[in-house]
Design a protein that fits this description.
By secondary structure, the chain is of the alpha+beta class. It is 34% helix and 18% strand. It has a domain of 97 residues: 2-Layer Sandwich (Transcription Regulator spoIIAA), CATH 3.30.750. A 6-stranded mixed beta sheet has the order 1-2-3-4-5-6, covered by helices on one side. Strand 5, helix 8 and strand 6 form a beta-alpha-beta unit.
Length: 262
């Protein structure tokens, strides 16, 4: 069982610092009258974390599958893509420890756990390779900045970037920050970018709170904006059929200059 270094007594002087210091005793001083340096010893887990976070330049923390989610050129349905995207995130290894606990309590089959990189790495070789080190770093960064980023191809030829942020209220509970006014601060926020060689880019800002959904679509070209307007009612109807009580869709062409100036 691993314990955090917060369990260590910060008042203790470790070997090399002149013996142990008991609680309530003053810090030792050097001949010059200044406090003597205190030796610090990190646990193996803490040294590994420091090593991972000390990598410079830091690689982009992102889930990036090697293959398209669907390898087909036939008709595609959202019902086919959604579970594959969810599985790509679920089996990425970012939530391995949580899944391990669920398996231990009989809530998750071993076959599903075996799909995650940590299990595959353990079966292949004991040493941690670079891909797994990057994954652990991603886990650590998620603890500090809870934002999940996915990049890949839903199908060949279409690039997608997805950024998911948890509700502001949950982050405030963890950090002790003051709550924000307005219901829009309580929902999930996501940013979706689709890039197609012929059609250009489209960025979608998504806000989800309970059964309420709001989406702002920012197309790169006027032609795409015109096509989206003709299909907006159809898209709204399909989203409403998914069970949302409120669906709000907007097309924004005012912010395209800075949105796509990269």
């Amino acid at each position: 069982m691993l314990h955090s270094d917060s369990r260590l007594d910060p008042r203790a002087i470790l070997p090399g610092a002149g013996g142990a210091l008991m609680a309530g005793q003053p810090l030792p001083v050097s001949p010059g009258g200044r406090p003597a340096p205190i030796g610090i010893q990190l646990s193996p887990a803490a040294r590994l974390i420091a090593d991972l976070l000390g990598v410079a330049p830091a690689p982009l923390a992102v889930i990036r599958p090697q293959q398209p989610l669907i390898a087909t050129t036939g008709p595609l349905l959202a019902e086919d893509i959604a579970p594959r995207l969810a599985g790509s995130i679920r089996d990425s290894g970012l939530f391995y420890e949580s899944h391990l606990a669920r398996w231990f309590h009989g809530e998750l089959p071993l076959e599903q756990l075996a799909q995650e990189p940590q299990m595959q790495q353990a079966a292949a070789e004991p040493a941690m390779d670079e891909a797994l080190r990057g994954l652990v770093r991603h886990q650590l960064e998620l603890l500090v900045t809870p934002a999940l980023r996915w990049e890949g191809e839903p199908w060949a030829g279409l690039l997608m970037t997805l950024l998911i942020r948890p509700p502001e209220a949950r982050h405030q509970e963890d950090t002790g920050a003051a709550p924000q006014d307005g219901a829009d601060e309580q929902g999930w926020r996501s940013e979706l970018t689709l890039s197609h060689g012929d059609l250009g880019d489209i960025r979608v800002s998504i806000w989800l709170h309970g059964e309420q959904l709001a989406m702002t679509l920012t197309p790169e070209t006027d032609g795409m904006a015109a096509q989206l307007r003709t299909e907006l009612d159809r898209l709204s109807a399909r989203l409403t059929a998914c069970g949302f009580s409120s669906v709000k869709l907007d097309i924004d062409t005012d912010d395209r200059e800075w949105q796509f100036d990269e």
